[in-house]
Write a structure and sequence with these properties.
This protein has 4 helices and no strands. With 113 residues, it is mostly helical.
């Protein structure tokens, strides 16, 4: 919302946030269902289910990118390259940094414990 306010495109970014939050909720439901299946499945089946869930996650990210692009394209003059840069800078890179930090913190905690 801050980015939308800063660039004078509050409505466009509110619509984009709706797409992001809706996609996250759907992804959460899919991952909840797949984690339930993984918990009660055996060796080869769990590997297959894990691979399928990773593919679904990747497809949901691609769908989110295209739906977000379609939403922002209708209301702003943003190009594909600009949206791709914003997608990496605002969504993927911070998530990757948090995941890296958490994994290092967990490893540090487990080594010293």
């Amino acid at each position: 919302r801050t980015i939308g306010w800063a660039f004078g495109q509050k409505e466009a970014f509110d619509n984009y946030l709706f797409v992001v939050f809706l996609n996250n909720k759907l992804l959460g439901l899919i991952l909840l269902f797949s984690s339930f299946l993984l918990a009660f499945s055996g060796g080869p089946t769990s590997k297959t289910l894990f691979a399928i869930s990773l593919i679904v996650i990747a497809l949901m990210f691609v769908y989110r990118f295209f739906l977000g692009y379609k939403t922002l394209l209708r209301q702003t003059r943003m190009g594909v390259f600009s949206l791709l840069l914003a997608f990496f800078a605002v969504e993927l890179i911070p998530s990757a940094v948090v995941i890296k930090f958490v994994s290092k913190a967990v490893n540090l905690y487990l080594v010293t414990a």
